[in-house]
Amino acid sequence: MSGTVETxxxxxxxxxxxxxxxxxKALAGAAFEERLVSHTDDGIRIEPLYQRAxxxxxxxxxxxxxxxxxxxxxxxxxxxRAGAQVAEDLAQGATGLSLVFEGAPNAFCxxxxxxxxxxxxxxxxxxxNQTHLRIDAHPWSRPMADWLxxxxxxxxxxxxxxxxxFGIDPAAIFAGTGRLRMSIEALQASMPQSLAHFFAMGxxxxxxxxxxxxxxxxxxxxxxxxxxxxxxxxxxxxxxxEARQALVYAAPHIGFALAVDQDQFVSMAKIRALxxxxxxxxxxxxxxxxxxxxxxxxxxxxxTAKDPETNILRTTIACFPPAAVAPGPPAGLPPPxxxxxxxxxxxxxxxxxxxxxxxxxxxxxxTTSCQRPAxxxxxxxxxxxxxxxxxxxxxxxxxxxxxRGWGLRRG
Length: 411
Hints:
The chain is of the alpha/beta class.
């Protein structure tokens, strides 16, 4: 065999024509459309091969030189046990923590006790200036942000060296629970003022988050999830604009959270589409171009309650889309098995942040005993007089078909 590398110098059109001829020959008379072309649940056509888009630049992370963030999800209701697990995770190589409190839409019947004492006890021995911290969307996200800022102040941590995500998303809370702590009008009037001092403090990271995971888990398609996230983010921009606050200061603190599943190519396309959509919104608002902060989490609805080995395989496949498009910090959903140290196979959470690149949340190591049973599907919240029913995340909001269920799926 020759040691030289043969270079194909054909143009894009000629190269595709050659490939089509070879594909037709390999199909041996089978229909090209039926065998090689597929469609998403939104009816979007997926070609077997795409040419390079002319005039497109690579969508890179803010700082590709930064290492990935290996993040562990912390959701044990027992604070002492959760603290021991945090210490073990950090000793084993984790560089980030995703804190999930009870009552969060993505807690799935688990979660840390929601109080300031829990934060203080849990993070007592954590090197905060070396660890990415994320608070998952929660009805009390706003006071939790104050708790965390107070803790950081008491420990005299340099804000410039922090990597934080507060995950404040009233829209996802309302969709996941069917209620809010105050009316939408009062929330819109108070939130810009209550968050203004965070901008003045110069704390890096995400304050407001457009979270699409609750809709994904309820059965939303990729396009529906993208549309809802973009609508939420634009609503936040309008809220600050109506409060006469400069968008140039608010926009960098708006992030996104989405779900990735075992359909790796569609998940890759979803993350890339979100980046381009946000870039278009920034352009329309005359904002300086900046990458979207994307938190990607392995899908809950793709998990099965009876085959943990299959869950490990699915979450491993779901690692690749965020890694390939290189978003930045996160929290993957572990299969219903005992947790293990952060090592492959990994369920990935990647996000694109201004200070970090990508994070991996490992799947637990397989064991013969289950320390945690498979979480049941979330139970619907009873309606309240002031809120509509069913909430947007209920099965009635997204029609169920043969491919898209809601809650846990078998298969």
